[in-house]
Amino acid sequence: MLSTMALLAAMVLWGSSFVAMKYALSYFSPMVVVFARMIVATICFLPF
Fold first, then answer.
1. What is the model's pLDDT at position 19?
2. Which residues contact 21 (CB under 8 A, 6 or more apart)?
3. Which of 21, 40, 41, 45 has its CA 20 to 30 A from that of 31?
4. How far is CA 6 from CA 1, 11, 34, 45, in A?
5. Is residue 21 a contact partner of residue 33, using CB atoms and an 8 Å limit?
6. CA torsion, ordered 15, 39, 36, 38, to nearest 10 deg
7. How many other CB atoms are found less than 10 A from the CB of residue 28?
8. Contact 10, 22 (CB under 8 A)
9. pLDDT for residue 20
10. Do 17 and 8 form a contact (C-beta atoms < 8 A)?
11. Would you give per-residue pLDDT tens digits along the chain (48 residues)?
């Protein structure tokens, strides 16, 4: 059951990223969006 929920969460996050990118690119330049994504990824992986 836990693996099914993890797979479902991964699918939702992966699928929603395309919608979020389209929305973000309508307001910000591509360089700002990429920079923000890298900052978020760095913060997420910082504890490891």
1. 93
2. 33
3. 45
4. 9, 9, 26, 18
5. yes
6. -60
7. 13
8. no
9. 92
10. no
11. 999 999 999 999 999 999 999 999 999 999 999 999 999 999 999 999
Which pair of tokens denotes residue 24?
């973000």
Statement: the pTM of the whole predicted model exceeds 0.90: no
**For residues 20 and 32, what is the distance between their CA atoms, to the nearest angstrom?**
14
Contact in structure between 3 and 11 (CB atoms under 8 Å): no
For residue 33, which of 24, 41, 42 has the smallest C-alpha distance? 24
The tokens of 16 are what?
């929603």
Six-digit token string for 19 = 């919608």
